[in-house]
Structure formats: C-alpha cells, structure tokens
Amino acid sequence: MFAVLKTGGKQYKVQSGDVLRVEKLAADAGETIQFNDILMLGGDTATVGAPFVADAAVQAEVIDQIKGEKTIKFVKRRRKHGSKRTRGHRQQLTLVRITDILSAGADKSGVKAAIGGALAPAAEPAAAPKKAKAAPKKAEAAAPVAEAAADDLATLNGVGPAAVKKLNAAGITTFAQLAAVDGDVEGLKVKPEWIEQAKELAQ
Predict the structure, then answer these.
(1) How far is it, in rounded angstroms, from Cα 153 to Cα 64?
(2) How far is CA 178 from CA 146, 154, 161, 165, in A?
(3) pTM for the structure as a whole
(4) What is the DSSP letter of 126?
C-alpha cells in the first residue's frame, strides 16, 4: 500500500519504511508525527482525494533535524567598477521514517499533526488583533447617541461654523442651552437674535 502526501508545498509518494527529507517540521527527534494532507491512497483499490482523502493519514517517526546541501548564489556586475558577491544557503530539513499508512481513523489516532517549523510560532498571535478591533466598534456605536442629543446650532441665522465651535467649547450644544445664555460666552459675543431664535426652536 502506498500514499501520496503533501507537506511543505511538495508531494511525496511513500510506503511504510521509506525515509524522507521534508521541509522543516516543528518536532523533535524520536517524536511520532502524522501527515493529514493525503492526496491519494493506492493498493488493491486506489482512492483519490478531492482534494484530500477524508480521515486518512500517514504516520512517521522524526529521525533528525538536518540541513540540505549548500547552494551558492553568485552575482557579478560587469562594469568598469563592477562587483561580485557570493552567498551560500543550506535549507533546514526534517528527516522522517514512514511507519504507518492509515486509510481511516486519522482523527482518533491521537498523534501530533505535522506542522511546518515556520508556521508554528505565527499561529497564536493571529487571534490578538481581532479582540483589539472589537473595542472601537462599541465606541463608534456610542458616539451617535451623544451626537443625537445635540442640536444643529448652524441652522440659526448668523451662526457660522466658527461660532458653533466656540459655543460647543463653552458647553452649549442645544437650543435650550443657548436660550438660557445671559451675556457673552468666552471668546464669542452672543447676539440677541440668536437667543430669540433658540427660544423658538427649543419649544
């Protein structure tokens, strides 16, 4: 029996006892892991997934964390004062031995799922920003309630945007408050016709 599994963006055809070098997995040597992304199962009858075979898995034992062969990147700029640069890289890999191929019962096996080493640390912080975004929505919902209680003072004849700002700074946001003003407010001369209009609108 064989299986075609997917890990690290690559596909591998494996049988029990095969030794593979796959992209780095978050597991220690001697640990048993399970590949759940099975594209195909073969044997007496072949089963092809759409895209994966349901409840199928491949279990493997981690032999070691290794590095691949060194690859050289060489850059040369052909100019009068050109430059050369050489860089080397060794890909981090995980050496595993296939121990078992499960055609069913993958969910109940209790074996740790194989997770890429680069993906494991990034899984937890993703949930934090969602909670942070929820708080501003409550503040936005409460804001229209406060605005609804205020009157549009700019509807009064002779009251412009600058005067509205000064009135709001003085704590005057409704027609009733303006009608009760006796005298000038800080930085603004309140005209008698404003007070008369505010009294009429406040009623």
Answers:
(1) 75
(2) 18, 12, 15, 13
(3) 0.52
(4) G
CATH class belonging to 143-202: mainly alpha
Q: Is the dihedral of CA 18, 19, 25, 29 positive or negative?
A: positive
User: Are 61 and 27 within 8 A, CB to CB?
Assistant: no
CA dist 51 → 11, 14, 34, 41 (Å): 13, 18, 18, 12
Three-class DSSP category at 143: helix
Assess contact for 164 and 126: CB atoms under 8 A. no
Structure tokens given for 58: 């491949």
Q: How far apart are CA 99 and CA 17, in angstroms?
A: 6
What confidence tens digit (pLDDT) does each residue in 54-76 have? 999 999 999 999 999 999 999 99
Q: Determine whether 2 is exposed, middle or buried from the number of CB atoms within 10 Å of its CB (0-12, 13-18, 19+).
A: middle
Of 42, 84, 93, nearest to 64 by C-alpha is: 93
| CATH 1.10.150 domain span(s) along the chain | 143-202
Cβ-in-10-Å burial (0-12, 13-18, 19+) of 51 comes to exposed
